[in-house]
Design goal:
CATH architecture: 2-Layer Sandwich
GO molecular function, one term: nucleic acid binding
Number of domains: 1
Strand content: 15-25%
Order of helices and strands: HEEEHHHEHEHHH
Structural class: alpha/beta
Pfam families: RNase_T
Keywords: Exonuclease, Hydrolase, Nuclease
Organism: Pseudomonas frederiksbergensis
Protein name: Exonuclease
Shape: globular
CATH superfamily: Ribonuclease H-like superfamily/Ribonuclease H
Radius of gyration: 18 Å
CATH class: Alpha Beta
Largest sheet: 5 strands, mixed
């Protein structure tokens, strides 16, 4: 990874979002399973196409003030596999009690849509395209309107790779590479969203030559 950003790519990143007033940095956590090194071969309890969102984390950036101004976090109760795997609990630190007490995806989607009304002219961003694909799959499974339908999506990981001419990199590593200190728990929706927002603000600050 280059230590200095490509100025043209950095300016291109700002150009992508300069017409918007807000950016919603979003991170999802989902049901999942994976074989541990110590385990004997077995079928996965949750296959990749059965993953369901169990946490939605959102950090809202005011793109004029260049700061995070609001948060949204909800757990979501899974339907296909209501019992979290040990792998999922260890990865996310989300507890079974958290999802048992949560609302269904359609109800959380309604709450989030109401929250979104406070932030017109917004773009939303995520680290990679997984979150957009997962939200579409959740909506299809629940037979409801996709969250963020009609709101433009920005793959921030792709922009990061172009700015620093680097291969795919995890969010934690990308944040630390910029000189920021990771805050909170990795693989928690709200914490990942907050750190993603901090990254975006820093990149914009560099583009606008504030830093």
């Amino acid at each position: 990874m280059k230590s200095l950003p490509d100025i043209q790519e950095l300016e291109a990143f700002e150009t992508l979002i300069k017409s918007f007033d807000f950016m919603l940095c979003i991170d999802l956590e989902a049901t999942c399973d994976e074989l541990m090194e110590s385990e004997n071969p077995r079928a996965l309890v949750v296959s990749p196409d059965e993953m369901e969102t169990i946490e939605i984390g959102v950090a809202v950036i005011d793109l004029r003030r260049m700061e995070t101004v609001d948060m949204f976090q909800r757990y979501v109760r899974p339907v296909l596999h209501p019992t979290l795997t040990d792998f999922c609990i260890n990865l996310t630190s989300i507890r079974q009690a958290d999802v048992d007490a949560a609302q269904s995806f359609p109800k959380v989607a309604t709450e989030f849509t109401a929250f979104l009304q406070k932030y017109p002219n917004a773009v939303w961003g995520s680290w990679g395209d997984y979150d957009a694909d997962q939200l579409a799959a959740d909506a299809l499974r629940a037979n409801c309107t996709p969250i963020l339908c009609g709101v433009q999506h920005l793959d921030i990981e792709r922009s990061y790779r172009e700015i620093f001419a680097c291969p795919s990199i995890g969010l934690w590593a990308a944040v630390e590479a910029l000189g920021l200190n990771w805050s909170g728990q990795y693989h928690r929706g709200i914490d990942d969203a907050k750190n993603l927002a901090d990254m975006v603000v820093l990149l914009l600050a560099r583009s606008r030559k504030i830093l």
